Amino acid sequence: MPDTLPDTSAGTPGYVDDYLSRLAALLAAIDRDQIAGLVDLLHDLWLRGGRLVLCGNGGSGSSSSHLVCDLQKNIWLEGGRPFEVVALTDSAALILAWGNDTDFANVFAGQARTWLRAGDVLLAISGSGNSPNVLAAVDVAREVGATTIGFCGYEGGALAGRVDHAVIARFPNMQLIEDVHMILGHVLFSALRDRVVGRLA
Known about the structure:
Layout: H1 11-28, H2 32-48, E1 51-56, H3 58-79, E2 84-87, H4 92-101, H5 109-115, E3 121-126, H6 132-144, E4 147-153, H7 157-160, E5 165-169, H8 174-196
Parallel strand pairs: 1-2, 1-3, 3-4, 4-5
Helix pairs in contact: 1-8, 2-8, 3-8, 5-6
């Protein structure tokens, strides 16, 4: 299905309004209780000294790296206790080695076998929900006994049916999907930070 673009008939101001209106509608459709439950999950992970691992391709890979920056640095600075958070997107050498020596579908799975342990959490981000390397990382997570979260778009793709917790931005436009995923990532981080420092029950 091709991307559904905002309305171009009303010129640039109308386009901007339509884009932001669509984004607001997508966010309004997100299950608040589900996101609150994910905050609980991450808070418990932090209390147990568990590890959060993220992965994604392209823009979703950038979101993975960005969220590691927020979660690893700021939880330590404000909470006084480390949170082990790593993105499988952040070593170009490992990605190139796994891709060159095996297959691009293995660039995350190979690393996931190193970082994920039973009781850890994998946050897999895929706008289409069908990225083979993201799905392979989820398979590894399930094998080792980690909990899996999927940030998906469109109708969720294969990822939605393979993870423990699927959060789907149901719309056929990749930029809007990525916007929703980044905002939800910031919601998870912000709520977790405020839980850690006692500002949020």
